[in-house]
Design a protein that fits this description.
Blueprint: E1 3-8, H1 12-27, E2 32-37, E3 49-52, E4 55-58, E5 64-65, H2 70-77, E6 84-86, E7 94-98, E8 101-104, E9 109-110, E10 113-114, H3 118-121, H4 128-135, H5 151-159, H6 161-176, H7 185-188, H8 190-199, H9 202-211, E11 220-223, H10 228-237, E12 241-243, E13 258-261, H11 265-272, H12 277-283, E14 288-299, E15 311-314, E16 324-327, H13 328-331, E17 340-347, H14 354-369, E18 377-388, H15 394-406, E19 411-413, H16 423-438
Parallel strand pairs: 1-2, 1-13, 2-12, 7-15, 13-19
Antiparallel strand pairs: 3-4, 5-11, 6-11, 7-8, 9-10, 14-17, 14-18, 15-16, 16-17
Helix pairs in contact: 1-10, 1-16, 2-16, 5-6, 8-9, 11-12, 12-15
The structure holds flavin-adenine dinucleotide (FAD).
């Protein structure tokens, strides 16, 4: 008799769970009957690619961080290896909005960590006192325990406040669309604390890694046809039953040996609250932030000049109505034809509608980069409560959730709420879960 598995949620976590289960079962000669249930009328969850005007426009994630291998590995396994597209690192530099203008982020840094003395001495973002604090990082005693702390506490403790506000927070908290004062270092960038323990300082650690040549090649990797080609390939290769436009309201009535909830923890809480209130309560401890992306396509000829680099992020102390901006045509060159230029603007303070988003974005782009043109096409994607906030103590929260989930026979949890929110993190976790269930 084949084992029946019901997967709820057709984002990358659910799709990857189904695919690794199917492949693992085939390798072991086992029969699995998998059903995947998705509330939306499409698969992919936060992965949304718009195909417009011969351009490829991402509405959610735009790439894998190359350092995390699971995303590109899954693409290879699906036969998409030839479509993997490295970011155009010749144009990798980006800027920070600082004192009302775009200031280039210093070269020779690994993220915000200085790889040589020039990255400190010539740093255009820091005052003399800020540079001194950055240079002094090698002398700050290393913290050896594994207790959590916020990103702000960590960076300030080692590098001082200016490095936090003008470099680390825009860069790192920007990725999570989170508040650095509450964001957990141990659940978001535990490698920094490991580096501190191992090398005594981040500066020493980053320089040792650079000497060994272990840094990534291109920082980001995407797919030439957009990230939705990953969703399409998964769908094509899955032989399971897929039910779209079906929002599961409760676990009761599902006939399955195993239910995998690959949905955000807040949705999982709604789903289980009647039958398993303690689990729902634990799931609700994870809070969510909202964000929105606005894609704007310009005619190249309408721009005074093509902006350089990958884009910019707003410094923490900076009054700026947008969170950041990617020059998407520079980041991945084949995204648009030569006569089009694609810009993606990020909001965490989200204007009421697309019209005011466009107006706000254009006014900030004019102020900061001199772009004074009308886009020929725009598209907003709202991610209301779309960003799980990995707050200080997140590991302990997740441990409490897992402990409650274990009390429910046949229930598993996966997805971006728990052990990493990047696409590759979701894939790593889905793969490990599949292995565990097939063991
Ligand atoms: C704007 C933005 C940019 C990002 N950029 C990047 C990036 O560049 N690189 C990167 O690695 N990561 C990025 N991320 C993070 C990454 O995209 C997400 O963490 C990841 O896609 C989440 O996948 P998931 O499968 O866990 O959840 P989701 O994609 O949210 O999928 C969950 C699915 O479950 C469905 N669902 C929910 N409740 C139910 C129910 N009751 N019944 C049935 N179905 C249900 C939903 O409709 C949804 O389709 C970004 C995120 C955002 C929002």
């Amino acid at each position: 008799m084949s084992q029946k598995i019901c997967i709820v949620g057709g984002g990358i976590a659910g799709l990857a769970s189904a695919w690794y289960l199917q492949r693992g079962a085939a390798e072991r000669g086992r029969a699995l009957d998998i059903e995947l249930i998705e509330a939306d009328d499409r698969l992919g969850g936060k992965i949304v690619t718009h195909y417009i005007e011969d351009s490829i426009v991402e509405g959610g994630p735009d790439s894998f961080l190359t350092e995390k291998k699971s995303g590109p590995e899954l693409c290879h396994a699906l036969g998409l290896g030839a479509q993997l597209l490295p970011s155009n690192d010749a144009k990798r530099n980006f800027s920070i909005v600082h004192e009302g203008r775009l200031v280039p982020f210093p070269a020779h840094c690994r993220l915000f960590i200085p790889l040589n003395d020039e990255a400190i001495r010539e740093n255009p973002l820091l005052s003399d006192a800020g540079k001194q604090a950055m240079a002094n990082e090698v002398n700050v005693p290393a913290r050896m325990d594994e207790e959590d702390e916020s990103l702000s506490a960590f960076v300030t403790r080692r590098f001082g406040r200016e490095v936090l506000d003008r470099m680390a927070a825009p860069l790192l908290a920007g990725i999570y669309a989170a508040d650095p004062d509450t964001m957990s270092i141990m659940s978001t960038f535990p490698a920094f604390r490991a580096m501190e323990r191992e090398h005594g300082s981040l500066t020493a650690g980053a320089r040792a890694i650079a000497r060994e040549g272990k840094g990534p090649g291109s920082v980001f990797t995407s797919l030439s046809g957009g990230l939705e080609s990953l969703v399409q390939a998964l769908r094509e290769q899955l032989s399971c039953t897929i039910r779209l436009s079906t929002r599961l309201e409760s676990l009761s009535g599902i006939q399955a040996d195993r239910i995998i909830l690959s949905i955000p923890a807040r949705d999982a809480a709604t789903l289980v609250h009647r039958e398993h209130p303690a689990l729902a309560e634990a799931l609700r401890e994870i809070r969510y932030g909202s964000s929105a992306t606005l894609a704007m396509l310009f005619k190249t000829e309408d721009l005074p000049e093509i902006p350089g680099g990958f884009g910019f992020m707003a410094g923490r102390e900076e009054p700026c109505a947008i969170h950041g901006c990617t020059w998407a045509s520079n980041k991945f060159e084949s995204r648009t034809p030569k006569d089009r230029f694609l810009v993606r603007v990020f909001f965490t303070d989200i204007p009421a509608n697309e019209e005011s988003m466009v107006a706000t974005a254009l006014s900030e782009l004019k102020r900061l980069s001199g772009i004074d043109a009308r886009p020929i096409w725009t598209r907003a994607n709202h991610w209301k409560h779309g960003n799980p906030l990995y707050e200080v103590g997140h590991r302990e929260t997740v441990a409490r959730i897992y402990a409650e989930a274990e009390k429910v026979p046949g229930l598993s949890l996966t997805g971006s709420s728990y052990e990493g929110l990047s696409l590759s993190d979701c894939i790593t976790h889905a793969k490990a879960l599949a292995e565990q269930l097939l063991a």
